[in-house]
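User: Hey, quick favor. My workstation is busy. Could you predict this chain's structure for me?
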Amino acid sequence: MSSSLSKITEHMAVVGSDGQHVGTVDKVEGNRIKLTKSDDPDGTGQHHHFLSAEMVSQIEGGAVRLNVPANEAKKAAMGSGAA
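Assistant: No problem, here it is.
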C-alpha cells in the first residue's frame, strides 16, 4: 500500500482496523507515517512515533485506515523509536 502514501496528508486521522483512533498524521517520511506528538502512544506528548506503510489498508473519508487493530498499531509505533 506504499503507493497510497502520496494520498496521505497532514492532520489526517489514523484509525485501526477496529475503528479506534491511533493517532494523527504529522507527515510522511520515506516509507513511514510520522504521528503528531499530541498522539504520542507512550502518553508523554513529547515524541513523534512512526507507523510502517505496510500497515495501511486504505485511505478513505479523510482517514488512514490500518490493517491492524489500534492497540497493535500503537505498540508497533512505540517500538519504532521516538524522534
